[in-house]
Amino acid sequence: AGCGSGILALSAARLGFGSVEGFDNDPEAVRVSEENAELNGLAGAVEFSVGDLVSGLAGRQADVLLANILADVLMRFVRELTGAVAPGGTLVLSGILAIELDRVREVFAAAVPTWTVESRVMGEWSDLALSRPA
């Protein structure tokens, strides 16, 4: 979700994940992601498309959903993001400033209280991994 340069989706494809899709609300980000796929010998390995966090996730459920997006946007779309994770799947949120981690964790934990929540802080940045029960 929010493919940017395509780095997360392309890494997933390189690591052997089967069906990998990436989307961004910025058509230029999609173009760059497709270009990066070609430059890295992964043309066609990832399906990139233009979409926002509503249209890009609508009707989908992923085993692993990665979102490297600003904290305020992540919190605003907590329902869409958690709703797009398949039972037994994982939602990985990154691009979160360490000073914002507690608030993001609180919002997501409240939205999905039965999910396991883990986080890491790496300098000024942090991430959050939420695992949905099977």
Question: What does this entry look like structurally?
Answer:
It is built from five helices and six strands, in the order αβαββααβαββ. It is 33% helix and 33% strand. The chain is globular. The longest helix is centred in the N-terminal third of the chain and has 13 residues. A four-stranded mixed beta sheet has the order 3-4-6-5. It has 134 residues and is α/β, with parallel strands linked by helices. Strand 5 and strand 6 form a beta hairpin.
Rg measurement, Å: 14 Å
Structural class: alpha/beta
Mean pLDDT: 95
N→C terminal distance: 22 Å
* DSSP strand content: 25-35%
Helical proportion, percent range: 25-40%
What is the helix tally? 5
What's a concise summary of this model?
The protein has five helices and six strands.
